[in-house]
């Protein structure tokens, strides 16, 4: 069998090795050091933030963001339901209640109309949420024009979960510049990686200081280590920051490659009936971190699971879109404000191999596999176990 084609494999350039060896040789093999400081400075400038604080993961950055905003036991935090579990988990670490908000069709991100509905309701009952966590799915920014207007109107701070969106822009501003606090991930499958790591960005010097304090066990400046509150060991290692600096220096190249991969899939698959692509609104430039398609089995002749299994049989990894958090057993007890969109995305959506290091030949195999499945138009249609909602071929606009 040929070598496995991964959904989004790490992609190193030469510079990472040099920087890593420099960190190693200088004996800064610690969760602080000159590469951490330099990575933070360079990162802040790339995303247009005044301050950046490197963390051990994106999840850790989200958790600390919630701490900084004072989220605690019993508070409500509004969050996109269509996301990776880390967004919701971080809220539960604070014993706060996630309230899941469904997606809009245009961006697949948090629907401003549902957000407004929930803010109105919470205002009426006299318990506004402590924060709104907006996720930039698949490398595409949410509709910040509407979302930030609502957040300001109700005076609720925004955490931008930009873990998947480093390098994207919205109205010519970089992803990560929309939240009062924004969070990024350098996990192995993200657009750039440090093997594991994250970043918190903000414009407040006081918040950045507080983040650094919380991620180093909340240590007061006393030689005997005085502690007045609970902290975490969430600091990034100097070795990994060295890798991050190398990766950051090739970010535009990585974004360009992911977008080219998306374009090729679109050029070579868009003629297939029943296949549509994640839309990209006019004022948005997505990184196309993952190329995601929607499959209408009634028209295509096979569903997304049949495509996934066919690809798997050729040792090619693909993945259904996120199962919405409001359908996850772990979060069943929390409120949700839904419109059916994320359930359709989960039922019909599939992400195709999109790593920037993927070869032209491997992408050709993915395309050929999907085309051949359409050609054979077998109807072993397997129904995903999701509550039924009307099938809408026009979910993807554009
Ligand atoms: C990857 C990811 C995270 C978590 O990042 P880690 O570095 O893996 O902890 C959070 N939110 C979203 C949307 C992600 O995709």
TrEMBL record:
What pathway is this protein said to act in by its record? Bacterial outer membrane biogenesis; LPS O-antigen biosynthesis
GO MF term set: GDP-4-dehydro-6-deoxy-D-mannose-4-aminotransferase activity; pyridoxal phosphate binding
Top enzyme class: transferase
Location of the active site: 190
Biological process, per Gene Ontology: polysaccharide biosynthetic process
The keyword Manganese is assigned to this record: no
* The reaction(s) this protein catalyses: GDP-alpha-D-perosamine + 2-oxoglutarate = GDP-4-dehydro-alpha-D-rhamnose + L-glutamate
Which keywords has UniProt assigned to this entry? Aminotransferase, Pyridoxal phosphate, Transferase
The similarity comment for this entry is: Belongs to the DegT/DnrJ/EryC1 family.
What protein does this entry describe?
GDP-perosamine synthase
Q: What gene name is listed for this protein?
A: epsN_2
């Amino acid at each position: 069998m040929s070598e496995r084609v991964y959904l989004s494999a790490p992609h190193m350039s030469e510079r990472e090795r040099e920087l890593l060896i420099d960190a190693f040789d200088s004996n800064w093999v610690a969760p602080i050091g000159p590469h951490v400081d330099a990575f933070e400075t360079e990162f802040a400038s790339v995303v247009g933030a005044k301050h950046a604080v490197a963390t051990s993961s994106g999840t850790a950055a989200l958790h600390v963001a919630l701490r900084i905003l004072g989220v605690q036991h019993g508070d409500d935090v509004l969050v996109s339901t269509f996301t990776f579990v880390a967004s919701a988990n971080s809220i539960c670490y604070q014993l706060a209640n996630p309230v899941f908000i469904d997606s809009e069709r245009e961006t697949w991100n948090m629907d401003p109309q549902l957000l407004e509905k929930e803010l109105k309701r919470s205002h009426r009952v006299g318990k506004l949420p402590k924060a709104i966590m907006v996720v930039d799915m698949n490398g595409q920014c949410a509709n910040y024009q509407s979302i930030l207007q609502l957040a300001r109107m109700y005076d609720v701070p925004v955490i931008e979960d930009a873990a998947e969106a480093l390098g994207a822009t919205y109205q010519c501003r970089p992803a990560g510049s929309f939240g009062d606090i924004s969070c990024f991930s350098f996990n192995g499958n993200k657009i750039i990686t440090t093997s594991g790591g994250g970043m918190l960005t903000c414009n407040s010097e006081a918040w950045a200081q507080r983040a650094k304090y919380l991620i180093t066990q909340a240590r007061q400046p006393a030689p005997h280590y005085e502690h007045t509150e609970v902290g975490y060991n969430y600091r990034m290692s100097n070795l990994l920051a060295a890798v991050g600096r190398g990766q950051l220096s090739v970010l535009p190249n990585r974004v360009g490659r992911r977008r080219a991969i998306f374009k090729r899939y679109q050029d070579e698959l868009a003629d297939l009936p029943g296949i549509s692509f994640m839309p990209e609104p006019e004022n948005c430039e997505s990184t196309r971190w993952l190329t995601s398609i929607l499959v209408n089995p009634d028209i295509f002749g096979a569903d997304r699971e049949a495509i996934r299994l066919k690809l798997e049989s050729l040792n090619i990894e693909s993945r259904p879109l996120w199962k919405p958090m409001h359908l996850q057993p772990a979060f069943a007890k929390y409120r949700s404000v839904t419109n059916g969109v994320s359930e359709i995305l989960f039922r019909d959506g599939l992400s195709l191999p999109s790593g920037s290091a993927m070869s032209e030949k491997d992408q050709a195999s993915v395309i050929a596999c999907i085309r051949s499945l359409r050609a054979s138009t077998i109807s072993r249609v397997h129904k995903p176990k999701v509550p039924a909602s009307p099938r809408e071929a026009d979910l993807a606009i554009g």
